[in-house]
């Protein structure tokens, strides 16, 4: 269930429901809240996000977790800049809190004909491990997206390359994706 309110450039939402790896017979309800402020009429905005939930782990253990974030974007005529900072913690079955945090910065540029967008994104994520220590992931994503009929959005082709480094281990990939809407 979700409820929300919009008052001019300000919007807020509150939601309740079963969370990840839960079923309808489980009586635990996750909760999230968002608030967003539009900045002008170009699509720029800044918002905050919070999520409180539980996941059912193997052996019937529950992992209580919390996630928080602030995300903003600046939309210009042909350029969009998006950035965010997110953090949270997981309550491990042994009672310890495992913290995590990360940030991202993305630039998207309309190029050529309308419907063609080139983008670049940098992500950084740090997470505590139950066995001790941290895992750190950071890297760049480059991509090109093409939607031939932007109004109908019946087809979208995206080609994306990702170069990630997770604790000094390279995890590189290239993907092509075709989306059709009927």
* Coarse shape: globular
Give the N-to-C terminal Cα separation.
28 Å
Helix/sheet category: mainly beta
* Number of contiguous helices: 0
What portion of residues is helical?
Answer: under 10%
**Strand segment count:** 11
Give the strand order, joined by hyphens, for the main sheet: 1-2-3-4-5-6-7-8-9-10-11
List keywords for this structure.
mainly beta, eleven-stranded antiparallel sheet, 0% helix
In short:
With 182 residues, the chain is mainly beta. It contains no helices and eleven strands.
Structural write-up:
- 0% of the residues lie in helices and 69% in strands.
- It has no helices and 11 strands.
- It has strands spanning 2-7, 10-17, 30-38, 45-56, 62-75, 79-91, 97-110, 116-128, 134-146, 155-166, 169-180.
- An 11-stranded antiparallel beta sheet has the order 1-2-3-4-5-6-7-8-9-10-11, with no helix packed on it.
- Strand 6 (79-91) and strand 7 (97-110) form a beta hairpin.
- The model has no long low-confidence stretch (mean pLDDT 84).
Helix-strand blueprint:
Elements: E1 2-7, E2 10-17, E3 30-38, E4 45-56, E5 62-75, E6 79-91, E7 97-110, E8 116-128, E9 134-146, E10 155-166, E11 169-180
Antiparallel strand pairs: 1-2, 2-3, 3-4, 4-5, 5-6, 6-7, 7-8, 8-9, 9-10, 10-11
């Amino acid at each position: 269930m979700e409820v929300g309110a919009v008052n001019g450039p300000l919007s807020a939402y509150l939601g309740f429901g079963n969370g990840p790896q839960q079923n309808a017979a489980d009586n635990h309800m996750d909760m999230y809240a968002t608030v967003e402020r539009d900045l002008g009429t170009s699509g720029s905005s800044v918002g905050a996000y919070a999520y409180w939930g539980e996941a059912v782990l193997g052996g019937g253990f529950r992992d209580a977790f919390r996630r928080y974030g602030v995300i903003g974007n600046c939309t210009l005529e042909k350029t969009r800049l998006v950035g965010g900072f997110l953090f949270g913690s997981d309550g491990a079955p042994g009672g310890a809190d495992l913290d995590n945090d990360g940030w991202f910065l993305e630039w998207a540029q309309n190029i050529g004909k309308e419907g063609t967008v080139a983008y670049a994104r940098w992500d950084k994520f740090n997470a505590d491990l139950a066995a001790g220590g941290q895992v750190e992931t950071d890297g760049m994503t480059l991509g090109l997206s093409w939607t031939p009929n932007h109004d109908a959005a019946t087809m979208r082709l995206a080609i994306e390359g990702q170069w990630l480094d997770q604790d000094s281990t390279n995890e590189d990939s290239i993907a092509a994706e075709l989306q059709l809407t009927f």
